[in-house]
Amino acid sequence: MKYKNIILLISILILSSGCVKKEAKPKPSSIVINGTEPTVITQPVEQQPIIIEQQPVIITQPQQQVSPIANIHSPYLMGVYANNPKLRRFIEEMINKYHFRRDYLYGLFSNVNRDVLALKKYNVFGTSKPTLKSNSVGSWDKYPKFATEDRIINGVRFWRSYRYYLEKAAFIYGVAPEYILGIIGVETNFGRDTGKHRVIDALTSLSLEYRKRSDFFTKQLEEYLLLTKEQRLNPLAIKGSYGGAFGIVQFMPDSFRDYAVDFDGDGKADLFNPADAIGSTANFFVKKGKWNPKIPVAVRVTYPKKRLYGVKTGYKTTYSQSYLRGLGMRPVNNFYGYKGPVCLIKLSHYDRDELWWGTNNFKAIARYNPRDYYVMSVHLLAQAIKQRYYQMYRD
To answer: Which of 271, 296, 285, 297 is nearest to 172 (CA)?
Structure first.
């Protein structure tokens, strides 16, 4: 009995010292979360934090650009143009050519309003201000001025804010930043006024009622429906000018489909986005206007007489510089060494004519808006912004 007690005591001492091998614990299991590398849990789940791979945050575009359109459907065509035969023919064409659903188009055009202001602007009915003729005496003095202190300051700020994309556009397309800014400044004062007309209202009203340019606006309406379908946009929500242009740079629907680019790499071309507006304007200048980065845009010239008569003017003209010099014209500077052909531009003041020579880049800007005074406004604003920018920031 004495020996049994001694043996029991020795066994207890051995177990307490850990000399006997304990039963091995099971190996921790691997858990795969969202397809990432296995996360090894070595403690109870309630104690071990689990790190899940962060997913990208998707930020939706402004409401006027992205919105579900599932509710725009109707079995009947209603609204102000329900009985218009031209609209019904247009709907049939869109169904046959592009496979639009009939109930979708019925629902869409049932929600269209007649844009009375747009119709008045184009003199379809009512009264509006007469169109300013560029050949009338003093017409340039009457023309709205865009190179104002307000727009120059806004242009400099815009340049500073979006310098990266302006320099990117200059590198890829060869278009100087100031001329992109000139377009944005003249069109919307750098996004401050992009228009208050629903694009679908303006285009439909002008297509159906403006006989003189019905074909043009019908084409724009077609392009607009295709654009909103391709981009998954709500056609009833986008607002723009009374002529149907929209975005910071006021592209018409066909120009959007042809020249808009995704310049910030977010997967969508959005002309309410400054980055995309910058890249799209440069792309437009190059592809439609044949912009040449190696030549200037315009230069002012002196002339010995107060008025110019007997010589055709306008951006569509083409003269050699030697011919115009023979008429007594002289550029005020060396025109960056440019010796090629030019167009002759006349700006009519009340007391004299102001003359300019323009290159093919002047004509490229005219592809945006085919009016001499518009192009000159873009040029003057561009140069004013450039001068102020480099005065303030020389880095």
So the answer is: 285
